[in-house]
Amino acid sequence: MNRRTFCRTLATSAAMAASPLRAAPERPNIVYVLADDLGWGDLQCYNPLSAIHTPNANRLASEGMRFADMHSSSAVCTPSRYSILTGRYCWRSSLKKGVLNGDSPNLIEPGRLTVPALLQSAGYRTAGFGKWHLGLRNDPSTDFSQPLHPGPLDHGFDHYFGIPASLDMAPYLYIEDDHAVELPASSTPGSKDPRGVFWRAGACAPHFKHEEVLPAITGKAVEYIQQRARQAAQPFFLYLPFTGPHTPWLPLAKYRNQSKAGTYGDFVTEIDDMLGNVMRALDETGQAKNTLFLFASDNGADWKPEDQARYAHRANADWRGEKADIWEAGHRIPFLVRWPGRVRANTVSKELGSLTDLMATVAAVTGSALPANAAEDSFNLLPAFFEQNRKPIRDHIVMHSNGGMFSLRQGNWKLEEGLGSGGFSPPQTVEPAEGGPKGQLYDLQNDPGELHNLYQARPEVVDRLATLLERYRQQGHTRPM
């Protein structure tokens, strides 16, 4: 039995062991586009004062639903991707803080059910194009001259084309399915040019060009959509993790000076245009009407106070902090959903949600049962999509910072275990003063900017949330089993 067959068999047997499948589903195509470090305030449909024109995201919002209270499970890249594909908080894995490197070993545990594996068992073709950043093989440092197992094909993808990690992390090369397209036999001195145009020195494939990656993966995704239109009887799942607007900010010439937010804004303009290419491919092949389309960011924007001082643009809107932080800007993200005829156009949901919720949602879409040992932190968002929920789908949500700081949100209350940002914003950590607060507590309804720490003023709320957070850490799941 080969690896792909094993993956499909594992997903099918696990689901059937849990309970039989529910009533026959519609089985729409599912397209999941994930921007990298796109801020809540970058899109005009979220922030009318954005200095960046985003017509395609605006169109997606007008044709579907915009979530106003959606969160990444972590404020940085790798953990968010782990949570999206497994429905499980990444801090339950071996990665307790930070992100993987470009040559790190595979993070997803052997035998763990993933979204694409679940969809394979429901009869879908599955493909991914873009930033993987979940590790390849099990070497201490990945040997790219060898078959890349475990990798995307071992976690439910029939086909994958992209790059190993972030676009500023060596080695720089393309991978396709289970092999390197071109070995990193050359090197780059890196780039430390003006703010944002940055990548690390290291090994590089001879023909690799950073600015060509985003158009290349989008072009591959468009080709895949066109190919699937010729085999429309079988639904498909397309996962498209963009490489931007994460550094390096390298917009192509046609996008330069198209925004009022500098090089970063121009790069977001390119991101929006790539999104539009995918949307047009669905339109032109007649598949848009039967496609559940989701667009999100993996965490907040890498937008610092000096950027904000230079441009009349707030990439994270008025939320406090930036990417990597436990504060809202680190993990409150744009999230757009379009499903013609099912999700009402031009609607806004205030439902609390997490990127971990993809697996439970697509399981509901396809009528698949979730086994008890999978998707431990995933909740079904379909009632919110259909505006049928009479009570909150989630009672709570757990967030995590780059430095490993925990936060628990319940209702309007948000508890943060520690002082400081836990991420990139100064101060990253603060030692509690004698007699002072040991953590942070905010009432987001009355204080969305997290300016007034109520940790000492509301000890009963602190105790309740701290107890709940510890319970969720210890019991191994937050989804009702």
Write the layout of secondary structure elements.
Elements: H1 3-18, E1 29-36, H2 55-62, E2 65-71, H3 77-86, H4 115-121, E3 125-131, E4 159-163, E5 175-176, E6 179-180, E7 186-188, E8 191-192, E9 198-199, E10 202-204, H5 213-229, E11 236-245, H6 262-284, E12 291-297, H7 305-310, H8 328-331, E13 332-338, E14 347-349, E15 353-354, H9 358-366, H10 382-385, E16 397-400, E17 406-410, E18 413-416, E19 440-443, H11 459-475
Please provide a written account of the structure.
This protein is 25% helix and 18% strand. The protein is an alpha/beta fold and 481 residues long. α1 crosses α4. It has 2 domains: 373 residues, Alkaline Phosphatase, subunit A; 79 residues, Arylsulfatase, C-terminal domain.
Give a short synopsis of this structure.
By secondary structure, the chain is of the alpha/beta class.
Q: Which band does the percent of strand residues land in? A: 15-25%
- Helix proportion range: 25-40%
CATH topology of the largest domain: Alkaline Phosphatase, subunit A
Any idea what the radius of gyration is?
Answer: 21 Å
Assembly context of the chains: single chain
Number of domains: 2
Architecture of the largest domain in CATH? Answer: 3-Layer(aba) Sandwich
Give the uncertain stretches in residue-range form: 5-24
Largest beta-sheet details? 11 strands, mixed
Number of helices: 11
Query: What is the name of the CATH class of the largest domain?
Result: Alpha Beta
Q: Terminal Cα separation, in Å?
A: 32 Å
Could you tell me the number of beta strands? 19
Globular, elongated, flat, extended or rod-shaped: what is the shape? globular
Order of helical and strand elements: HEHEHHEEEEEEEEHEHEHHEEEHHEEEEH
CATH homologous superfamily of the largest domain, by name? Alkaline Phosphatase, subunit A
Q: Which class do the helix and strand fractions yield?
A: alpha/beta
What is the typical, i.e. mean, pLDDT? 94
